[in-house]
Structures are given as C-alpha cells and as structure tokens.
Write a structure and sequence with these properties.
alpha/beta; N-terminal domain of TfIIb; Rossmann fold; Dimethylsulfoxide Reductase, domain 2; 4 domains; seven-stranded mixed β-sheet; 21 helices; globular; binds iron/sulfur cluster; metal-binding
C-alpha cells in the first residue's frame, strides 16, 4: 500500500537502476538539490543500496547532454538545433531506405526504457521505419532464462511470485546470482532461508551461504544435471507432482543419468559430497526456491543451463506450488517490461511472437495497419551489431538507452562495426561511450524527469513519476520518436507523446497476450494497487496475478515441460596460450555499462577503475603483483586492469567487472559465441592470459 500522498515538491517513484525497483521518495529541486529516501514498499522495506542513495547526483552530472549534437564535416560533434538534428536524421534515413530497403536501418533498444518507450520504439521500428531489424540489450541479460521459462512453463515472468515470498522459504538455491552486491535490499528476504550459492567466486552472497558450490566456469549445466541425477537416484523426486503436472520427465532424466556425482566432480570441481548435501537441503524443506542469475545464464548453452535448473525444480515439485518455485532474477531496471512490449526482434506487444498470425492481426488492428505490412522477425542483438556496415546489410542504427561499445561482447568488433555505419544515432542523457562515436546525438530525459511505468523482476507494474521537468534543450524519447516518425511520413496521431496515452494503447495491444496489461491503468497504480501481470480486463478490477501457475502452467495442456538437455561445455577452453578462465560480472558501486554510475562521484570513488581479481598462486605464475597493472587478453582482444589478489578464487579463474570504459572494457576479451535458442553471448567464459604491465 502507498502511505501518504507526495506533496508538490515530492515524487514517489522508483530507483533508476536495477530490476528490484526499490521505491523512493524524491524531494527538492534543481537549485536546492534533490534528496532521496526509501519509500514504504514491501520489496525494499526502507532500504536502498549505495547506487539508490546516490541516484539524485545523476540529475546534475556536469556533462549532461542538453543540446542535440551533429557531426560536422570536420569530424567533430557540434551543438545543433532539434530541427536540424531531426531533419538530418530523417533525411539520411529516408535516403538509406530508398537505396537499400527498410532492413538497412536497425534499432537497438534498452532494458532501462519505460514500458511506454519500449512499446513506442517497437511500433516506430515496425511502422515508421518498416524494419524487422530491432533488438535490445536485454538479449545480453536474461534472454536465456526467458527462453527456458517459456519452454518450461509456457510463460516467462522473472519471478512468478512476489519477492516477499522468499522470506518464508526454508532453502533457496541461487545459481549465478550475487544479489548481496547487485541487489543488496533483496538480502532482507534471504536472511532466514538457508542459502546454497552456485558461483565460481566466493562472492559477497556466497560468503553468506550455508553451502557454496564452486563449479569451474562454463560447467553449471553439468552441475545442474548432476543435482537432478542425485534427486532421482536418492528417491527425492516428487513423483506425484511429476505425474500430475509435467511432461518430458523420462527424457530429461535419461540425459541426467549420465551425470553421476563423481563424473560431475571431475568436470565441475564440486565435491560429490557437496552435491549430495545440496540436493538433500533442497528436498528436505517444502518451502524451497531455485533462482538463477546471469552467472548461470550468460553462456552459449545458457538456455539449456537455465532449463537444467528448472528441471531440478520440477523434479522436486517446486514451480507452481505455494511457498516454493523457480525464478530468474532479472537484472536491468525494466528488464522484465523491456521484453514484453515489442522491442525484441521476434516479438510483438503482449509478449507474443511476431510470427503468430493472431497476434499480428490484433496488434495491426490497434496500430491501424494491415497485418501483412508488419515486418517479420529480425536479428538478435549480437547478430544485429555484427551486421552493421554497408558490406553486411545494416547501414544506419538508432540506439536508445544502451551503450553497446561497453556492454556488448567482443567490443572492439562492435566499435569497428559501428564505425562502418553510414549513420549512427544515439539518444541518451549523457555522452556515453557509444554516443561519443555517433553521427547524431539526441539529448533525452532521465528517470526523475519523466512519467511512465516500469515492470519489476516480480512482474509488478510500477509508476515512475517526475519530480523535475527536463532541462531546456532536452526532449522526452516519446516526443523524439513522434518527431522522427512524422518526418518519415507517419501521421502524428499514431505516436502519442503523453505516457498515459501510450500506456492506454499498450494495454489494448497487450490484450489477450501472455503479458496482458489490459486491466492495469495509471489510476489503479496511482491508487496504490499492487498489480502483477497478467491483469486482463475480462473482469472489472481484476486483482492481477502475483503468483503464477498455482493451478496450471501456461501450456495448452496446463503442464510444465522438462527439457532434455545435456552438457557440451563452453565454446572456448583454456590452452597453453590462454591458460586461465575469465568470468565477468557486476559490483556494488556500478550499474551495467557504468555510463551513469561512473559519473556519480561517490560511486566512481568506490570503484574508480577496471580491476581483475586473481588468486595469489595465479598472480605469482603470471608475475603479477597486488595493485599492479595487468593486461588481460584473449584471442579477441586485451584490456587493462588493476590486480587485486583474492585467495578465495579458484586458481584457474579470474573475475573482471564489465562496467569500465576505454581499455578497461572487460568485453574487449569476451566471446560472442551465441546460445542458439536465445541469442545470449558467452559473457561468463573466456580463455585469457595475464601479463604484467608497467604503470
Ligand atoms: Fe536501486 Fe537496485 Fe540498489 Fe534498489 S537494489 S537501490 S533498485 S540499484
């Protein structure tokens, strides 16, 4: 419930960063300064992390973009009027489309966009540009778990239960999720349950675990298969549930039977005794949850790995059971909503397939066009980035709320591909690493200057509210899309610029879809209702669906599906030349590509530069010293990092945060091997070598 109504100089909103979407109350103004405090909300219960507490600093960063920038004939970005910038973009887009067809223009969106922006961006791409080439950075975030969840349950919602349910759990397995650092307020709900943490690192979360399993990078899938093997052979599987509520058990178990504990130990390094302990801990308490994060998902077998953990949960009878379940801890602020409204290459609003004739007909009806005019599926994020340049097909790219120069794998190749474009347009509120390479930069509003909705990791739709008006010279993304669409020949009426009006259209477009928002309104949200999708308007005041699957799963027969998956191993293994595994991840002080948090003084001070955590034995072998500099190189590229010795690491593995720019980009060495089902790159496993560098 919402406590008191905010005053005129206050806004009750949510943190600009991660998918936990902690509630905040903002007050003040630009002159006096903006302050933040946690608002009453069951998810963050009066707490924020360091990023949330310092978020108001984002509103006054010195290099805030307040004027469009256009690259001149001298090669420099120079301020320009909005009219000039938009005319330039539209004119060049028109020429590229005329010469090379609509698919020569690509769009790259972001999981931080509000639902309204994500929706309108998808519509703009399909109608104003007529392109199939749209995808977004969420492909690099939770796409493997989304694919596995859709396959298993017929529906993907990160957590199909409220976060607060976790507090009553007996045991929680966290596979590849370092929530103590990435979402600290979530730990309040994990204080009581016994934690089993799967992570090659002794992360902040692993340090609080009752049991820490440390598989070698790229072997999580073998471990999950082994845990299923033990559950079955020790008679811990819930046979009644399997019989009643699932299909495909025999085939899945058939694969897992090849993964007996000693073999799993040989492949993963996790002792067989710890594997057995883990399964007994999971099975002995009825209130058990299995949760996956990026560590388990960002692999070239990411979908299979998430599916293997879902198999384990299904065998134990957890999903769709009160007080138990499986979930994926979505990372980006609107990582959940961002994947529902049509900025994915294969998808239309309502989280429906773009190849589904019924979905095409309905959405086309809402948009006032014929279904056959809608493009089909396009490339996934990495494929799209790799197809940039005249020789590869895509000649112009529009980037909204994303910084792929830092966040995409094999980032030197991404930078080369961006440079090969005829036109790169970036809409952002700071000169991100990608914006600095653009031909045109469009300055847009940021979180505390805009209205809209976000959907958190538990599928709850939340209101983002404005405290401030944007600075002069800055426009809202919705207006930018409308202004461009009109210049491209679209009727203005097709692109509302009021967030509420866009949401009303989104409701209609989602009606009957998997993510059905048709029963949700700003009025209901502003009245403090807790509405988790699906919330159809089939009944007045539908209460939403905080807990999914309690009666049936979303497949037509109501049953969940086991997946018959097997372990293949990472795309790249260590060699004489590249003898160490590198795995990448996040740290407390920074968010995603760091474009925002590196500009906040306190956060920059807490984590000022790229670093690599190395076991002391490995450091000695590689002639590295604590606090010295190292070059971390793979077959694809090299980055520079400050060495931090960590005796708790596996000696065969180093850890590098990916938030830093220029030669501190971890993604200079990462591998773009893709998961065939989801398009997820293999961020978590690269074979590297480490060399000392002089200061
Ligand atoms: Fe913001 Fe996430 Fe930190 Fe909460 S946990 S304050 S949503 S960054």
């Amino acid at each position: 419930s919402e406590p008191r109504r905010p005053g005129p100089e206050e806004a009750r909103t949510h943190c600009p960063y991660c998918a936990l979407q902690c509630a905040t109350r903002l007050s003040g103004d630009r002159e006096a300064g903006v302050t933040v405090e946690p608002a009453d909300f069951p998810v963050n219960r009066g707490k924020l992390c360091q990023k949330g507490w310092t978020a108001p600093e984002l509103l006054g960063v010195p290099d805030r973009l307040t004027s469009p920038l256009v690259r001149g004939s001298d090669g420099r970005l120079a301020p320009a009027s909005w009219e000039t910038a938009l005319d330039t973009v539209a004119g060049r887009l028109r020429r590229i489309r005329e010469r090379h067809g609509p698919d020569a223009v690509g769009v790259f969106g972001g999981g931080g966009l509000t639902n309204e922006k994500a929706y309108l961006l998808g519509k703009f791409a399909r109608l104003a540009l007529g392109t199939s080439q749209i995808d977004y950075n969420g492909r690099f975030c939770m796409s493997s778990a989304a694919a596995a969840g859709n396959d298993a349950f017929g529906l993907d919602r990160g957590l199909p239960f409220p976060v607060t349910d976790l507090g009553d759990a007996g045991t929680v397995l966290l596979a590849g999720a370092n929530v103590a650092e990435t979402m600290p307020p979530l730990m309040q709900h994990l204080d009581r349950p016994r934690l089993i943490v799967v992570d090659p690192r002794r992360s902040a979360t692993a340090r609080r675990a009752a049991l820490h399993l440390r598989p070698a990078p790229g072997t999580d899938l073998a471990l999950a298969l082994g845990l299923l093997h033990i559950a079955v052979t020790e008679g811990l599987a819930d046979t009644g549930y399997i019989e009643r509520r699932t299909r495909g058990y025999e085939e899945a178990v058939g694969r897992a039977m090849g993964w007996w504990p000693e073999r799993v130990e040989a492949v993963t390094g996790v002792p067989a005794s710890d594997q057995r302990t883990a399964v007994r801990m999971l099975a002995e308490h009825p209130r058990t949850y299995v949760l996956t994060g990026r560590g388990a998902e960002q692999h070239s077998q990411g979908t299979a790995t998430a599916a293997a953990f879902i198999n384990l949960a299904l065998a134990l009878g957890l999903p769709g059971t009160t007080g138990a379940g499986y979930g994926c801890l979505t990372g980006q602020g609107n990582g959940q909503g961002g994947r529902e409204h049509g900025q994915k290459s294969d998808q239309l609003p309502g989280y429906r397939s773009i190849t589904d004739p019924a979905a095409r007909a309905q959405v086309a009806g809402v948009w006032g066009v014929r279904p056959e005019t809608l493009p089909g599926p396009g490339r996934t994020a990495w494929e799209l980035l790799d197809a940039l340049g005249g020789d590869r097909g895509i000649r112009a790219l529009l980037v909204f709320a994303s910084n792929p120069v830092v966040s995409a794998p094999h980032s030197a190749r991404v930078a080369d591909r961006l440079a090969a474009l005829d036109l790169l347009v970036v809409a952002d509120f700071v000169p991100s690493d990608t914006a600095r390479t653009a031909d045109v930069v469009l300055p847009v509003a940021q979180w505390a200057e805009e209205e809209g909705t976000m959907t958190s990791l538990e599928g709850r739709v939340l209101r983002r509210r404005a405290l401030l008006t944007p600075p002069p010279g800055v426009r809202d993304d919705l207006r930018v899309l409308r202004d461009l669409a009109v210049r491209l020949g679209e009727p203005a009426s097709r692109y509302p610029t009021e967030p509420r009006a866009v949401f009303e259209e989104l409701r209609a477009a989602s009606r009957g879809g998997r993510a059905d928002y048709s029963g949700i309104s700003y009025e209901r949200l502003d009245a403090g209702e807790a509405l988790h999708w699906p919330c159809p308007d089939t009944a007045p005041d539908h209460p939403g669906t905080p807990r999914l699957f309690l009666d049936r799963f979303a497949h037509p027969d109501g049953r969940a599906r086991f997946a018959a998956v097997d372990h293949r191993g990472p795309a790249e293994t260590t060699s004489e030349e590249y003898p160490v595994y590198a795995t990448t991840g996040r740290v407390l002080a920074h968010y995603q590509s760091g474009a925002q948090t590196r500009r906040v003084a306190e956060l920059a001070e807490a984590a000022p530069e790229a670093y690599v955590e190395v076991h002391p034995d490995t450091a000695a072998r590689c002639r590295l010293t604590d606090r010295g500099l190292a070059r971390v190189s793979s077959a694809r590229g090299a980055m520079t990092a400050r060495v931090r010795l960590d005796p708790t690491l596996r000696p065969d593995t180093v850890f590098v945060p990916f938030h830093f720019a220029r030669d501190g980009r971890a993604n200079l060495f990462t591998h773009p091997a893709l998961d065939p089902r989801s398009g997820m790159p293999e961020f978590k496993v690269s074979a590297v070598r480490l060399d000392p560098l002089a200061e």
